[in-house]
Every structure is written in C-alpha cells, then in structure tokens.
Design a protein that fits this description.
heterodimer; A: 111 residues; mainly beta; 6-stranded mixed sheet; B: 112 residues; 0% helix; globular
Chain lengths: 111, 112
C-alpha cells in the first residue's frame, strides 16, 4: 500500500538552511504536500508541488521532487526560531482522495 | 471566511460515554475528512465524505460513525468511547478529490 517516510528529527542553527526529506511509494500521486504543525495547533498548508514539476520555490521555501526516486524535499532558507515545528510530507492516496501522511519531522531551531 | 472550524476544542470522556465532534466549513467544499493524530503515527483517515448525504470508511473506521446531513457540516460520533480513542482529531475539507485539503484546528479527546 501507500507509504510515506520521513526522518523524525532535524536540528539546525538559526540562519542556516534546513532540508527535510521524504520518500513516498505511490507513483501515481498527482500532488505532494508539505504541512506545518506548531505545538498545540492544526495543520497549516505550507506548499505543494504538482507531479510534473521538478522544483517549486516560494520565498524561503524550495521544494524539490525526484519522481524517479520518489523523493521529495523541503528546503527552508535562513531558518528562524519561528520555523520550529513538525513538518509533514503527504501524498494523495488512491481512490479515496485522502492524504497519506508521513510521521512528521520535528524541526528544532537553536539560536 | 472562517475556513474549517471544529467544536469542541477539548473534551474528557469516561469509558463508555458517547459524544459527537462537529466540523464545519464555509468554503462550499464537496469533500470532507476526519483524521486522528497519535504520537509517532502521523495522521490516519477515519471516515470521509464526497458530498452531502454520503459517507465512506477510511483506514481506521472502527468505533466511529459519521454523518453529512448538510454540505457544510461533517459530524464524527463515538457511541461508546474507549481509552484507545484518546487522540487529537482533525477535520479537513477540499474542493475536489485531488485538491488541497484545508484543516481545522483539531479536537483533543481524552478517554479515561
């Protein structure tokens, strides 16, 4: 079945770039998403990429998609303490249209 | 435009009690979803709806029922709560089957 994998933790220093990686299994996924969850809050859509794109840039965020390897990454430039959160990678799963989520990567930003 | 709202925000139940979680969206979306989030498990789909009057089972439907009597509302019911249903419940909605899902703020449920 569909599966989305991501590393659980990432720690960076303020001002550095953060790269969060994700692998997925469903090659038919049309959209791939990155959501951000701050402590005690809901999921905020950060960005998404259509499957026929290799890269998408949105201000400090860069999404790279390697369809051959089924690998998705999110790069946050000039990481700030306000970026500390859990980041979820997700793909659209099968005929139900629901999102298949990874377990989330907890990003910690040290001053 | 409030987006997706959920009530209540937090609830404590005793084992065997029942309750209903309400999700409302004002974006005229056809599709609505209920997920649960557990530590180390990510989010998993409980039930979903592709339109008013329709519901379908997701990945973890046991112990839950849903109803979609109005397009803007999607209710999640627990008939007899169990400690295993302690979780954070998120509702989401989307315009179409393969389109961006927007999430509510979540409901924290503790079953003792």
């Amino acid at each position: 079945g569909e599966d989305v994998e991501q590393s659980l933790f990432l720690s960076v220093r303020e001002g550095d770039s953060s790269v969060i990686n994700c692998t997925y299994t469903d090659s038919s996924s049309t959209y791939l998403y990155w959501y951000k969850q701050e402590p005690g809050a809901g999921l905020q859509l950060l960005t998404y990429i259509f499957s026929n794109m290799d890269m998408k840039q949105d201000q400090r965020l860069t999404v790279l998609l390697n369809k051959k390897d089924k690998h998705l990454s999110l790069r946050i430039a000039d990481t700030q303490t306000g970026d500390s959160a859990i980041y979820f990678c997700a793909e659209i799963g099968g005929s139900q249209g629901n999102l298949i989520f990874g377990k989330g990567t907890k990003l910690s930003v040290k001053p | 435009n409030a987006g997706v709202t959920q009530t209540p925000k937090f609830r404590v139940l005793k084992t065997g009690q029942s309750m209903t979680l309400l999700c409302a969206q004002d974006m005229n979306h056809e599709y609505m979803y209920w997920y649960r989030q557990d530590p180390g498990m990510g989010l998993r789909l409980i039930h979903y709806s592709v339109g008013e009057g329709t519901t379908a089972k997701g990945e973890v439907p046991d112990g839950y029922n849903v109803s979609r009597l109005k397009k803007q509302n999607f209710l999640l019911g627990l008939e007899s709560a169990a400690p295993s249903q302690t979780s954070v419940y998120f509702c989401a909605s989307s315009y179409a089957l393969v389109s961006t899902q927007y999430f509510g703020p979540g409901t924290r449920l503790l079953v003792l």
